[in-house]
Amino acid sequence: MLAYHAAFLLLVAGSTGFFVALAALNVRHADRTVRERTEWLADTVGVEDPERLLDYHRLTTAASQLQSVVVLAVVLLVLYTGLFGDAVAAAYDAIGSDLLAGVAVFVGAALAFQLLRVPFDAFETFAVEDAFDFNEQSPTLFVRDKLVSTAFTVVLVAALGAAVLFVVETFPEWWWLAATGVVAVFLLATQVIVPRVFLPLFYDFEPVEDSSLREAVDEVFERAGFTCDDVYVMNASSRSGHSNAFFTGFGATKRVVLFDTLVDQLDETELQSVLAHELAHWKKGHIWQGMAASIVQAGVLLFVAQFLVESSWLYAMFGAPEVPAAGLLLAALWVEPVSQFASPLSNKLWLANEREADAFAVDVMGDGRPLAGALAALTSENLGNPFPHPLYETFHYQHPPVPERIRYLTED
């Protein structure tokens, strides 16, 4: 048993330590490179105060890594004090149905993680984001959003957990394959549920109609050979000063969403270029490719998890009852680091797709400079770090770094 504990701690604590060290390396690399390229930042990106960008990068990185370390410490504490095993046993003793007891265990774990995140989210919102003039939330709105998002999370976890536990019981030999199908259905459903059910709980969506913005949108749609009636501006500024845009859904549920902050920060041609880039993800099949990659990844991890769930030592390590819900949660702790270390593989697909989307936007606009200008403006407005360390980029970046994209877009 000692060997299992050593392997577990090496994998879980070692992976956390690796990514904390990688984040620190990235901060040092950014500090050095930003100072070396202050002239490029000012002339190309419009960053007149590089120290402000670096301060924001340091603080957000430190907060994120502190959270990961604290979460790991709490998880290990709960496991090694026997609290996890006792809580699972209590749930199964108190609830007559094994399925409902398993769902209760999943929901309890989700609620515990949500609660653990609250102080970190509050610090990020009211200390970091507020200090850099991004935060637009009041404490009351923050609490309201947390309660609503937690309730939504409980519903999703309960539904997904019940489906997975059902297939575990129904297909004991091949449940990993059936569970992969459940994940596939879930991913498809989120394409509709998130923009049409979840986000409207927090933001207002105004359809873009009869305006110069609508004309600009229709123009780029026509150039791209694309049709979509559902184009909305989301009042992201009610929560944050950050800006973005996204495309989601499929078939009749397609929807283009522009943050109001994005509309305010970009001129018309820059906005069109961003929209053309987003449309490329649909036109080139990137959404389906990404979904297929996620399903394959989930299938591989569930295949590994099946062997773990069927191993008695997994439960004996922490004195947990040998029930599927406990096994799945414990297995997740083993496979999550594996997923993190495998992220460069999936990132390669996303990087290729992002480059193709940039090329599509250039073809649609007939010029790469509008998208380059949009990227510069977004980097400046959002205080993004344009110079990631190459190793950090390998594990964390699904878009090429901004300097690389601008160089490609503006080269003759």
From TrEMBL:
PANTHER family: CAAX PRENYL PROTEASE 1. Residues 30-203 form the CAAX prenyl protease 1 N-terminal domain. The chain crosses the membrane at residues 6-27, 69-92, 98-116, 147-168, 174-194, 287-308, 314-335. Zn(2+) binds at H277, H281, E354. GO terms for biological process: CAAX-box protein processing. GO terms for molecular function: metal ion binding; metalloendopeptidase activity. Binds 1 zinc ion per subunit. The active site is at E278, D358. Its cofactor is Zn(2+). This is Peptidase M48 family protein (Homolog to CAAX prenyl protease). Residues 209-411 form the Peptidase M48 domain. It comes from the Archaea. Pfam families: Peptidase_M48, Peptidase_M48_N. InterPro entries: CAXX_Prtase_1 (IPR027057), Peptidase_M48 (IPR001915), Peptidase_M48_N (IPR032456). Keywords: Hydrolase, Membrane, Metal-binding, Metalloprotease, Protease, Transmembrane, Transmembrane helix, Zinc. Belongs to the peptidase M48 family.
